[in-house]
Amino acid sequence: MNPADIAAWRESGGQSFADITKLSDLAMLSGVETVPRLVSPDLPVTIEETLEWLRSVAPRTIVPLDGAAKGKAEGVVVRTATRSQIAKIRFEDYERTMKSKVSP
């Protein structure tokens, strides 16, 4: 398919998502690995707590794509088990926000 058709397919609900159990089963059957999982029942609330939590759970990348990142993790993706809510928590965003909070 060309890129425009792929985008239309995706935007029209063509792309479905599996819940965590089905995803694990599909990955095992396909012989592929899923992304590393972090289980955290209570996520932090404040910017400061979130940056501290992020540093504790992802001090370095587990899956480097190349040497350019020098082992630094970009962040983590958090989601509900059903994938109904998904968010990316990125170091860059939280570090920049913290820097702007202390800068005049």
What's this model, at a glance?
The protein has 104 residues and is mainly α. It has helices at residues 3-14, 20-30, 47-57, 91-102, and strands at 75-79, 86-90. The mean pLDDT is 84.
Protein traits:
mainly alpha; 2 domains; 104 residues
Characterization of this structure:
By secondary structure, this protein is mainly alpha-helical. The protein folds into 2 domains: 1-34, no CATH class; 40-104, no CATH class. It is 44% helix and 10% strand. The protein contains 4 helices and 2 strands. The protein has helices at residues 3-14, 20-30, 47-57, 91-102; strands spanning 75-79, 86-90. Strands 1-2 form a two-stranded antiparallel sheet. Strand 1 and strand 2 (86-90) form a beta hairpin. It is globular, with a radius of gyration of 17 Å.
Chain-averaged pLDDT: 84
Estimated structural class: mainly alpha
Overall radius of gyration? 17 Å
What's the story with the biggest beta sheet?
2 strands, antiparallel
Indicate how many domains the architecture comprises.
2
Strand order in the sheet with the most strands: 1-2
Identify the quaternary structure here: single chain
Tally of strands: 2
Q: Could you tell me how far the N terminus lies from the C terminus, measured between alpha carbons in angstroms?
A: 51 Å
Tell me the β content: 5-15%
Helix content: 40-55%
Query: How would the global form be characterised?
Result: globular
Order of helices and strands: HHHEEH
Low-confidence residue ranges: none
Number of helices: 4
